[in-house]
Write a structure and sequence with these properties.
Elements: H1 5-8, H2 21-24, H3 29-36, E1 42-45, H4 52-63, E2 66-71, H5 77-90, E3 93-98, H6 105-117, E4 120-126, H7 130-133, H8 136-139, E5 143-146, H9 152-164, E6 175-177, H10 179-187, H11 193-206, E7 215-217, H12 219-226, H13 239-252, H14 256-268, H15 272-287, H16 292-308, H17 314-326, H18 332-345, H19 406-418
Parallel strand pairs: 1-4, 1-5, 2-3, 3-4, 6-7
Helix pairs in contact: 5-6, 9-10, 9-11, 10-12, 11-12, 13-14, 13-15, 14-17, 15-16, 15-17, 16-17
């Protein structure tokens, strides 16, 4: 049986991994492990189709260690025992354990001594947050790395490889992929390379060649094979970002009807990840402290939309957009943190006052740590005047309160009481 294109195109060495350069690029942590052949067990977590299995496969190929793949949910302890026996005979086995967050305690207890001995190099893969879902006994014996969605340039590289590779790709076929169709393949899957490659293969294998033997893949064909519509059939390929930009600016400008129009475009494109990310960003960037309740409602609406999926997801999303449009606006928190970061980047560090430094260790008092610190709860109204910024920055003023909503108006009044000079 012919394996899917995404499976066939998996890298056989670390240099072939597409994306994830923060982990596998020259000088980065996983590349260093491979180059030195000093591998440690690890957990890779991130969205589907972003390269967790590819990284494991590439590590095995580059180090020439045996590579085995199991699923923590469906494979038994007996399957783990087989891998352990192989490790005893061959020296080292790299085990990719998919859905590691579903590893049962008996399987975990069996694995632990083999991880300790180094016979099995475990590469756990999960879409869940390992700090929440994975047992501390496993976490303490692994390094945890986040695998991020691929950007469109990464996916375009993989598409081009697939079109030209005659051994495992589609290079034996004479394929003419329209530029806007290629762009849609790279963008519409939101960083899921597996979906992009499998849609490309379906399009190529299901589209008849013309009389000269050329398979023409148009945007319409790719839309059908991806089951995702392009935002618009523009020639420049800018529509994707134009719609997102117009969406945020319409919400920021409190134009409900325009915001719903652009939300509708994104919904028809099936682009729930972009909508979710943009809504939460807008809530905290543009509404912020003027209405924290609206921010919380937006997060809840996004979670509901992600849980129920399209088409019903349009309902909580519409609720959130109308709520944000008609909420008072304030970017004071965003401006404040940007000001603070800009100050730090210019060298605005300064020495932390000694009375604020950690004093919970032997010898701290001899170093003057914590001496003279005023504990606010020992004073009336649980507040006492005290310098917290370094001397170099003691007059820094990052936050400029606004009063566009009841909540931030209250914050402004409290800020004025605490800092009378900044009223």
């Amino acid at each position: 049986m012919l394996q899917p294109l995404a499976f066939r195109m998996r890298p056989t060495k670390i240099e072939e991994v597409v994306g994830q350069q923060h982990l596998v690029g020259p000088g980065k942590i996983i590349r260093r492990m491979v180059d030195a052949k000093l591998l440690s067990s690890m957990i890779l977590y991130g969205p589907p189709g972003t390269g967790k299995t590819s990284i494991a496969s590439a590590i095995a190929g580059s180090t020439q260690y045996a590579f085995r793949k199991l699923n923590a949910a469906t494979d038994s302890k007996k399957d783990l025992e087989v891998v352990a026996e192989e490790a005893k005979m061959s020296g080292t086995v790299i085990l990719l354990l998919d859905e590691i967050h579903r590893l049962t305690k008996p399987k975990q207890d069996f694995l632990l001594p083999h991880l300790e001995s180094g016979r099995i190099i475990l590469i756990g893969a999960t879409t869940e947050n390992p700090y929440i879902t994975i047992n501390p006994a496993i976490r303490s014996r692994t390094q945890i790395f986040e695998v991020k969605p691929l950007d469109e340039q990464d996916i375009e590289i993989a598409i081009d490889r697939a079109l030209t590779d005659k051994k495992v790709g589609l290079g034996e076929l004479d394929i003419d992929l329209e530029s806007n169709a290629r762009l849609h393949l790279a963008r519409a899957t939101n960083g899921d390379l597996r979906s992009s490659l499998n849609a490309l293969e379906l399009a190529a294998k299901s589209t008849p060649a013309d009389d000269s033997g050329v398979i023409f893949l148009t945007l319409t064909i790719i839309e059908e094979c991806l089951q995702k519509k392009a935002l618009t059939h523009d020639k420049d390929g800018d529509a994707h970002y134009d719609v997102i930009s117009a969406f945020q600016k319409s919400v920021r400008g409190s134009d409900v009807n325009a915001a719903l129009h652009y939300l509708g475009r994104l919904i028809l494109a099936g682009d729930l990840p972009t909508i979710a990310r943009r809504l939460i960003t807008m809530a905290y960037e543009d509404i912020g402290l003027s209405s924290p309740a609206a921010c919380a409602r937006t997060v809840t609406a996004v979670q509901a939309a992600e849980k129920i999926g399209f088409p019903e997801a349009k309902i909580p999303l519409s609720n959130a957009v109308i709520d944000l449009c008609l909420s008072p606006k304030s970017n004071s928190a965003n401006v404040a943190i940007n000001n603070a970061i800009a100050d730090i980047e210019k060298g605005g560090f300064g020495e932390i006052p000694a009375y604020l430094k950690d004093s919970h260790y032997k010898g701290a008092e001899d170093l003057g740590r914590g001496i003279g610190y005023k504990f606010p709860h020992d004073y009336p109204n649980d507040w006492v005047s005290q310098q917290y910024l370094p001397d170099k920055l003691k007059n820094a003023d990052y936050y400029e309160p606004k009063s566009n909503g009841r909540y931030e108006q209250a914050l402004k009044e409290q800020y004025g009481k605490l800092h009378p000079s900044k009223k």
